[in-house]
Amino acid sequence: MKKDIILAGVGGQGILSIAAVIGYTALEQGMFLKQSEVHGMSQRGGDVMSNLRISDNEIASDLIPFGKADLIIAVEPLESLRYLPYLSKQGWLISSSTPFNNIPNYPDIREVLDAIREIPQHLLLDTETMAKEAGSVKAANIVILGASAPFLGMEFGLLEDAIRFIFNKKGDRVVDLNLRALNAGKEFADLHQHN
Amino acid sequence: MALQRLFYMPKLLLLGDEAIAQGALDAGLSGIYAYPGTPSTEITEYVQKSKYARANGIHSQWSTNEKTAMEAALGMSYAGKRAMVCMKHVGLNVAADPFVNSAITGANGGLIVVAADDPSMHSSQNEQDSRFFGKFALIPILEPSSQQEAYDMVHYGFDLSEKYLVPVLLRITTRMAHSRAGVVRREVRNQNEAHLPSDLRQFVLLPAIARRRYKHLLNNYPHFGTESEESPFNEYIDSHHRSKGIIVCGLAYNYLMENYPEGKVPYPVLRIGQYPLPRNLVEKMADECDEILVVEDGYPMVEELLKGYLGVGLKIRGRLDGTIPRDGELNPNIMAVALGLEDTYGLPVPSLMVGRPPMLCSGCPHIDSYGALNEALSILPKGRVFSDIGCYTLGALHPYEAINSCVDMGASITMAKGAADAGLVPAVAVIGDSTFTHSGMTGLLDAVIEKSPITVLILDNATTAMTGGQESAAMGRLEDICKGLGVEEEHIRVIRPLKKNHEEFVSILEEELAYQGVSVIIPRRECIVAIDKRMRDKFKNTKTVAS
Q1: CB-CB contact of B111 with B139 (8 Å)
Q2: Interface size, chain A vs chain B, as Cβ–Cβ contacts under 8 Å
Q3: Which residues of B touch A38 (CB under 8 A)?
Q4: Contact B286/B263 with Cβ under 8 angstroms?
Q5: How many domains does chain B have?
Q6: Which of A78, B49, B449, B503 is most buried, with most CB under 10 Å away?
Q7: Is residue B166 located within the same domain as residue B27?
Q8: Domain spanning A2-192 has what CATH number?
Q9: Is B110 among the domain residues?
């Protein structure tokens, strides 16, 4: 089994936390992993992208070839479209619908969301609302992770274990909030992935 | 770093940078010397955060620049202990003087220089290839294709360095430095005991001694070649289809194997991880194959060497003949096309897409500084602001469009001076505090000596921000340094760059721009990201309420 995942967003949106949860779960299952990212621009409001590859076998390239990504997981809608050249024909695009509008020429958000809706296999989530309902807008990245869960080829329970382990030091309230966020995302995906 | 603490199992999940740092700690490192530079910064940070390093007195404080780092490391090597120097590719330009001469003095304790190149210039001014520097200095070069190799090459590199008493260059690129994969550690060994070189004038490069030392290096060079021929990092994987042979250097090997998921490449492959090139293996491929494809994550160094200037003889394919794009980093698709395999595509990017370039953070002190500078200069023709390398380089972009140059560390001050010499008066330099202590001080001295009519803004945000907020050597020293260099005290002005001080700031600028001599203005306010980090570190051990 292999999963090639593009993680996309803007600096500060918690992409690396998503990678940490998936990565921890993969390693716990004894899988191979390679994760590549570009540092430096993330604090300056620039776009951030990470290649995350997990597999039963040794992985060669750190970079995912174009047209081979199984998933684009995006915490920002415009950023999800930036990496479409990576998405495979059977791939899924899972994105937040909340724009991060820090540039003067951000396109009309309706056009951005329409472009996402044109992709046959996509999930679009109002992560801001869902995260607030779970307890904090800062958990928006975990909501997206939850929505990606059915496509990761991993037991959901193991992802929850990873959340508990990774957020352990921040206390029970934070762990619970993130678990609620994760589950909210998953419920959305279970409901919507077959239309 | 968080990931490494989490995944402590028999295999560590480490960035290439972290693998090198862990490799150094396990191989008996006594000191790491560096100046922050993407993508090398994390190597030193890993050692700085290491409990083992602290417990064993391993030096890891940042140096003022790469030259002082290289020289200090050479000093540690002279004293018999193992040292590592880390820098980005352009940092090696700064360290070049001691670097090249360290090959001639030789090393005593093992000495490894790590150069982290940046093909595609993700965060650099160019994509120069550090392997040329290794070749120029006539020393062995190691280039890993995996995080495990990066780890292993440090131990191997120190041994190689101590065998021939020569520095060794370890060359990586961004995609190795900032990519995580599993690494298995090996047994930890002790640091060396301090011991001086057997010849106490070996490091004195007077011509008579230098000539002898140079001959010694030249005599060793063929032995470096033999080491390459026997190296575990150079591998010839033969095959029967010899219409072409493929030479892959470093990471290129991964992109090759990505295209053959079964693990079998139909052509002979020569995997290079150690230079000088292994002559025996290169000759074998040249004899047995009809043509050779050379794939390197950087300049076409090996390709050009094999092709020769006239390009006669065996056909060599690569960047120079367009088989691979001339510039930019490699990826699996470029490799596929070069191999004549099918290129793969996803979906096109929709036309509504726009760039999201990095910007100054909201609340950044540089925004206030540029606001005041633009206003003060508004009555003059544009084109007189020379800047430097740091977050403030983003002042070139909309909406500030405040600067006209950024060339190399420290160039702001010296270019302003040169432009003023040419009659462009007033000329303005904009430089950061850390960049100033890195390479701005000497240029300021030039200007002071000639009383150049330049206005220097030293943007003091009390950190080295762009690389992630490392300590700045300038902290608490700027005014004294400027006075010490001879800048007149009444022309050293300090201001806190805030909206409410805007008028005062513009006023100060107008006065100093009018002054026909050296002025230094220091807008001082801490970087807001650094403040945030400080606050978070401060409350790290308190249980935080979900926010």
Answers
A1: no
A2: 178
A3: 122-123, 174, 178
A4: no
A5: 3
A6: A78
A7: yes
A8: 3.40.920.10
A9: yes
